[in-house]
Amino acid sequence: MREESVRLGHANEWLHGSLHEPDEAARGAALICAPLFEERKSAQRALVEFARALCRAHWLVLRFDYRGCGDSAGDFDAYSVPDWQEDVREAAAFLRARGPDLPLALIGLRLGGALALRSAGACAAETVALWAPALDGRRYLRDVLRRKMVKEMMGQGQARTRRNDCFEDLEAGRRLDFDGYAVTSRLYRDLAALVPPANGEPSPRRALLAHVGPNERLPTDLTAWAAALAASGCRADTVAFRLPPFWSLIGYADTAPLAERTIRWMEEER
């Protein structure tokens, strides 16, 4: 397989991407939507390994950074959810140009899962695979703040951050620092409004919702989201993996079982 660094989008707001191209004819095209904040850094190795595994299975794969993130142009605080959904569409258009006759799959981790699902209709993606998806933006913000408080307690003996104060600051239009990322009031509002597509909205033909946690019991919200997708005509499958939260770890976590199961699901009759 071949790996190539690519630049897509506009001259001043370009996106950095990594294209993984198989030596043999591709069976499909896959766009990987990374998480945001510090989760992107922790998940980088797992997503690179997954992209290479997909490529070995004869998929044309593109990984990319949203504007203001990673190696792409722009400052993080200048963008928000609609901008990153536009980036998903831009990356999908690039991938389609490379393989115009290939069926398109979107794979998203955490908030990348929410962006993938909300963009699937506009991208005309046939399948979407969501790893530990953060489909409820408000709940995701609460979880991020909780981790921030835990880190402060471990490092300083007490938490300087109070969750209610943080939400009050964001409601008042003040910025909040999340581990070096400036969360603006606009981003806060857009994340709070981020929910799964409603019944009747465009949805992919197939979706995989993968839970990752300390046990293999599916959380109720994940099964509810799968049911909502099924009601819109999507074949929604769920699966659970007993794996650590690799998107928030410093060390290495073996995510091969998750990657292998996802590839098998993607290769099932389409």
* Secondary-structure-derived class: alpha/beta
Instruction: Count up the domains.
Output: 2
Specify the CATH class of the largest domain: Alpha Beta
CA-CA gap between termini: 24 Å
Report the C-alpha radius of gyration, rounded: 18 Å
Determine the oligomeric state from the structure. single chain
What is the CATH architecture annotation of the largest domain?
3-Layer(aba) Sandwich
Query: What number is the mean pLDDT?
Result: 90
CATH topology of the largest domain: Rossmann fold
Give the fraction of residues assigned to helices. 40-55%
Main sheet summary: 8 strands, mixed
Q: Helix-strand pattern, N to C?
A: EEEHEHEHEHHEEHEHEH
CATH superfamily of the largest domain: Alpha/Beta hydrolase fold, catalytic domain
Count of discrete alpha- or pi-helical segments spanning 4 or more residues: 8
Coarse morphology: globular
* Order of adjacent strands in the largest pleated sheet: 1-2-4-3-5-6-9-10
Low-confidence segments, given as residue ranges, are none
What is the percentage of strand-forming residues? 15-25%
